[in-house]
């Protein structure tokens, strides 16, 4: 992934080597210790290093516990964000970037001088600036390579320099001044003075690098054990090498003479003291390894700065481009650090500033002060982090050790700032106060910037200290969101198209079914009526219509009487009236679609248009409403249906009958063998509960009507007197079915106008019942 470092590949040894190389034992003993004796002019250097190593050992207990729960390359920055607050974490990150850059760039001054002295052995006299620029070029290249390769290079260099230190220490301790070993520099009272307190920050600067395992916690195979082991080994080596070598120097030079001799040999005290007792080739080899030790320190700090920048940029606090990696290496952050170092080197070369005191000592001491600030912040963060949740850690790890370290480190910080001028041996207020003020201002700026992120960039604020990119520009989240959006859009389009096709197909099928019902009804209307003739005074049964899903009783048109039930043929007038009551054949709307082809909305509307009747008038539209389907009741054995039964089991169209014929456009129902119209109560086989006493046409007769059994089982007309001329009759006014002529008292014959098909649009979907075993 473009924003991730290599995961879980480093064990205890490579991380320990990186940490020791970052501490650069030969760099400290050959560069920092002579400056402590010669420039600060204090003899308590061995005690200062041992005391600081002990305090940092206690501090490391809480750090190791924190690393188990916050394995982040940001180390102190991540701990401050997790233990204090996210804005405090941003401020800590800014301080860390300045401090480690000052340490790394300051080493170029010592490296240039050391390389110049080493190459002078071979007769090569080149300015320190040239060697510093060559070292910068190598660092720039190696900083963009895999960390495993750098670890192997550092392993060789560290082993060589540690071997040189041990050899020189043995020679010096075996040749004490005056023939007697002195222990005066190990007196703890030597650091009670102002100068002695200032040595503490020099010791902290020399210890910088012991926390490097925290930076590689995200790449460690087992962060719980690997980081703790690497830190412990690093501090042990540092205490022995730094404190021991500082004491050995005072032994070979003498307690009283060490400060004076160091003042005369600030650049080569470590090689000058054992020179009388060692071959020249060994001394020259030591000078070469001193240069390589400085190079190893520069490379280690370069990786530390690059990974800090990577972590902060990956979370969106810094520019996104700084989070770019290649094969797990933060290439962009590495290039940025190298660019800053190049600018500083060019400034020193341009103005001719001293590379040892102005660049190396001032840079490393200032960086050490910044790291001390980071340690104080981190120790307080560890205490607060475990106060909220112990995470299963022991009381010593989560409370006692962090509190002890926080108190001692805070005291050291305050005393160091108070005596920083003595440490630098300078009265220049700008030079003395610029490092403390720079770190303070950067921390405040970082806190304010973090608060602005909370307000204006909540996505970035949410991931501060986590080492993860914000969701807004995370490559994985962007890809997932894009894929999800594309899938959702495609699925929506498919669903919409499927819904359109289903609606069109359903509407077309419904229209075809209704047209088939209309054709069947037209054919039956054209055939002779074979139903039993109605007796005089008899009316056709009433039928049920549905309006808004509610069945409504409607009286059927008057039957044509032909006598008192004697079966005589209809009169001419009756035939004419029957012909008027017979619906006219309907014209099916033409369709240009082929069978089975889906129709769009315009085709459905055009095909559902009602054809005009013969007299040119369009049929009146009738509103279709979905009907509730009811279970079909099975026909009792031996039951028969009348000729008028055009419901479920009549085998016809299944529409509600009017005048004994099927009327197209009736609401379709369930249980019919035809079009599936809703049968009325009393029908057998329609699925409706039969009315008591009914067994015939499947309609509920109006009470008192002549014909099928009524709900009460009685017969009667309930109608007005028939017309003696036409033989037709209308219902009595009390029935609500018609009005008599006020002059003659006769009731006018009633005709039934043909019902026309109305335009049909898409029908609302009605859940289909599944309780019909025949479906």
Describe the structure.
The protein has 775 residues and is mostly helical. It has two domains: 12-473, Amino acid/polyamine transporter I (Up-down Bundle), CATH 1.20.1740; 474-591 and 625-716, no CATH class. 54% of the residues lie in helices and 2% in strands. The protein contains 22 helices and four strands. The chain has helices spanning 12-23, 25-38, 45-69, 76-83, 86-120, 128-142, 147-173, 194-207, 212-215, 223-253, 258-264, 269-272, 280-314, 331-351, 355-388, 395-418, 420-424, 429-456, 458-462, 475-526, 572-581, 601-607; strands at 543-547, 550-554, 657-658, 661-662. The strands form two sheets. A two-stranded antiparallel ribbon has the order 1-2. Strand 1 and strand 2 (550-554) form a beta hairpin. Helix 2 (25-38) packs across helix 10 and helix 5 (86-120) packs antiparallel against helix 15. The longest helix has 52 residues, at 475-526. It starts with 11 loop residues before the first helix and ends in a 113-residue tail after the last strand. Residues 529-593, 604-720, 750-755 and 769-775 have low confidence and may be disordered.
Count structural domains: 2
- Please report the distance between the alpha carbons of the first and last residues: 58 Å
CATH architecture descriptor of the largest domain: Up-down Bundle
- Strand % is under 5%
Multimeric status of the protein:
single chain
> Helix share of residues?
40-55%
Mean pLDDT: 71
Order of helices and strands: HHHHHHHHHHHHHHHHHHHHEEHHEE
**What is the count of DSSP helices, taking H or I runs of 4+ residues?**
22
Strands of the biggest beta sheet: in what spatial order?
1-2
């Amino acid at each position: 992934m473009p924003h991730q470092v290599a995961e879980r590949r480093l064990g205890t040894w490579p991380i320990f080597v990186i940490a020791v190389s970052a501490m650069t034992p030969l760099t400290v003993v050959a560069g920092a210790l002579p400056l402590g004796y010669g420039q600060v002019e204090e003899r308590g250097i061995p005690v200062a290093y041992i005391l600081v190593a002990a305090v940092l050992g206690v501090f490391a207990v809480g750090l190791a516990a924190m690393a188990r729960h916050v394995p982040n390359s940001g180390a102190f920055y991540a701990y401050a964000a997790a233990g204090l607050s996210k804005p405090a974490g941003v401020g800590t990150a800014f301080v860390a970037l300045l401090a480690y850059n000052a340490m790394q760039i300051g080493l170029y001054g010592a490296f240039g001088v050391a390389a110049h002295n080493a190459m002078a052995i071979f007769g090569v006299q080149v300015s320190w600036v040239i060697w510093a620029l060559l070292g910068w070029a190598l660092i720039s290249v190696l900083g963009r390579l895999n960390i495993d390769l750098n670890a192997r290079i550092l392993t060789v260099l560290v082993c060589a320099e540690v071997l040189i230190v041990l050899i020189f220490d043995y020679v010096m301790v075996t040749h004490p001044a005056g023939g007697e070993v002195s222990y005066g520099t190990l007196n703890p009272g030597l650091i009670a003075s102002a100068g002695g307190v200032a040595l503490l920050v020099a010791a902290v600067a020399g210890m910088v690098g012991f926390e490097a395992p925290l930076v590689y916690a995200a790449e460690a195979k087992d962060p719980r054990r690997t980081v703790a082991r690497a830190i412990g080994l690093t501090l042990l080596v540092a205490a022995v090498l730094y404190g021991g070598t500082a004491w050995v120097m005072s032994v070979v030079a003498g307690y009283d003479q060490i400060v004076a001799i160091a003042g005369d040999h600030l650049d080569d005290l470590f090689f000058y003291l054992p020179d009388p007792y060692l071959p020249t080739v060994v001394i020259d080899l030591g000078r070469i390894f001193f240069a390589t030790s400085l190079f190893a320190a520069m490379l280690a700090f370069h990786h530390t700065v690059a990974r800090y920048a990577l972590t902060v940029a990956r979370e969106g606090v810094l520019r996104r481009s700084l989070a770019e990696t290649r094969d797990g290496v933060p290439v962009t952050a590495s290039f940025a650090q190298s660019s800053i170092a190049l600018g500083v080197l060019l400034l020193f070369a341009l103005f001719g500033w001293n590379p040892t005191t102005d660049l190396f000592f001032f840079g490393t001491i200032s960086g050490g002060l910044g790291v001390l600030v980071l340690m104080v912040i981190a120790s307080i963060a560890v205490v607060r982090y475990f106060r909220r949740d112990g995470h299963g850690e022991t009381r010593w790890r989560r409370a006692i050790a962090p509190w002890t370290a926080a108190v001692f480190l805070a005291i050291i910080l305050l005393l160091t700032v108070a005596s920083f001028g003595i440490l630098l041996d300078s009265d220049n207020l700008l030079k003395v106060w610029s490092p403390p003020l720079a770190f303070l201002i950067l921390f405040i700026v970082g806190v304010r910037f973090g608060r602005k992120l909370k307000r204006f960039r909540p996505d970035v604020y949410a991931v501060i200290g986590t080492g993860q990119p914000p969701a807004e520009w995370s490559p994985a989240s962007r890809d997932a969101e894009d894929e999800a959006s594309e899938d959702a859009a495609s699925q929506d389009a498919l669903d919409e198209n499927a819904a359109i096709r289903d609606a069109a197909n359903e509407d077309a099928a419904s229209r075809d079914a209704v047209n088939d019902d209309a054709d069947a009804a037209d054919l039956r209307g054209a055939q002779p009526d074979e139903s039993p003739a109605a007796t005089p005074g008899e009316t056709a049964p009433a039928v049920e219509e549905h309006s808004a899903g509610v069945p409504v009783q409607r009286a059927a048109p008057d039957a044509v009487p032909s006598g008192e039930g004697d079966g005589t043929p209809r009169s001419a007038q009756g035939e004419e009236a029957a012909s008027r009551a017979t619906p006219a054949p309907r014209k099916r709307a033409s369709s240009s679609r082929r069978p089975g082809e889906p129709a769009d909305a315009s085709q459905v509307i055009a095909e559902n248009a009602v054809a005009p009747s013969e007299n040119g008038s369009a049929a009146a539209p009738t509103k279709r409403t979905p009907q509730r389907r009811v279970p079909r009741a099975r026909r009792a054995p031996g039951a028969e249906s009348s000729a008028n039964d055009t419901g479920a089991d009549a085998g016809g169209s299944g529409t509600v009958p009017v005048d004994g014929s099927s009327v197209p456009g009736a609401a379709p129902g369930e249980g019919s063998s035809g079009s599936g119209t809703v049968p009325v109560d009393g029908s057998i086989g329609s699925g409706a509960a039969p009315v008591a006493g009914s067994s015939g046409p499947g309609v509920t007769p109006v009470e008192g009507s002549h014909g099928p059994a009524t709900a009460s089982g009685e017969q009667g007309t309930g109608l007005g007197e028939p017309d003696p001329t036409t033989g037709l009759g209308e219902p009595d006014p009390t029935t609500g079915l018609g009005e008599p002529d006020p002059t003659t008292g006769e009731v006018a014959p009633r005709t039934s106008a043909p019902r026309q098909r109305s335009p049909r649009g898409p029908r609302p979907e009605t859940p289909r019942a599944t309780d019909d075993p025949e479906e």
